[in-house]
Please model this.
Amino acid sequence: MSKTGLIIEREFAERVRKKSFIISTLLTPLFMIAMMVLPGILMMKGGSSTKSVVVIDNSPLQFVGTRLTSGKTVEFKLLGPDATLNDARMAYKSDYGILVIGSDILDNPQNLQLVLNEASSMSVEENIQSQIQSILRTERLKRYDLENMDQILADANVRVSGIQTLKNNDQEDSENMEETSTTTSWLMGLILGMLLYFILIVYGQQVLQSVIDEKQTRVLDVMVTSCTPFELMMGKILGIALVAALQIVIWAVLVIGASAFVMPLIAGADGMEAMTAAAQAASSTSEFSGLMLRFSDVSYLASLFLELLLYIVGGFLFYASMYAAIGSSVDTPQDAAQFNGIIMMPVIVAIMVMMSVMNDPNSDLVFWCSIIPFTSPIVMMARIPFGIPTWEIVVSLILLYISFILMTWVAARIFRVGVFMHGKKPTWKDLGSWIKMK
Model:
């Protein structure tokens, strides 16, 4: 086995045996699976109970209270016109609350009180406000003495609940166009982008800390007697890169397996339909059903994880070479802080741009940040769920891996000098001179 291969094997074996690696590898997909399954289960099983609200209506002829409609959220109990709040407070303590409607409610819509016997519920308050608002609107329109008022109101009460978005493709049959969702795509991109950010930071810092620790203990001084500084640096980078790649592969297998087998077992065919129906009943949009559809599509998840793996490997190698160079040039993590902040700046910019992808995934800023290697891994992974052209992904990956080769060359020239430097805090000028040194 080559010297680089031995270093790769050592770095890889040292990390995969750690409890932290095993725990994070198992817990992360479990968390992702829980995020896939729990919302649906909660919508099916965790609905709130019906709240009983006692109504004291002081409006003329109790025109508001008589029109309040009970449902799954609220059950209304209208008291007589002579009822008082003091009497109701003592007699109806077991109910959710007491709604007091003022006598001038038609001209003063704010004259409402809700006396609660338990913790407040936003859904109940929204239900009450919505119903009373509709009742008052109808009564006010009646002042204009228009004919067929009820029919006019029913016809005018139109609500646009959402727009069905379809992906235009090259197929002649328009019925075969793929349905898309901006919110769903953004959520998927956000998850993937943050996952890649986590990998870059955690494993990049491991490269930095590993080099610093071994430099402090003079282990590197011994190792470079049997291999070149370049072989040593590449062995460390590739060894830790394999650990990151292994973790992603394990996550992919677990998540895809859950998508193919666990979710159908938990929900079943009827359960999946019930979750979708519950979501659509709770919201006028189809975001939940779209998200569940994405998570249950095995081929879609497999393609996402493949692209994620390519960007994680390329992005990690790109940044890890910089971390290795910085680690070799300093003696303590504190000395590395000034350089570490510069390395982190493009990553922070990538996170900021990623948050704006939802507004326009094809804007000039987002496009170029998904092409430039310093920001492309995170930003491109946030764009991919929106269905961007394949050539953009290919160009981005080619530039990323070419930049890794160039950055490795620069880092290797710093590493070969820095690994022998002790007791001196380097400056940017020093790093520049090390790169030029023959």
About this structure: Residues 51-151 form a domain with the D-Maltodextrin-Binding Protein; domain 2 fold (CATH 3.40.190.10). The radius of gyration is 31 Å.
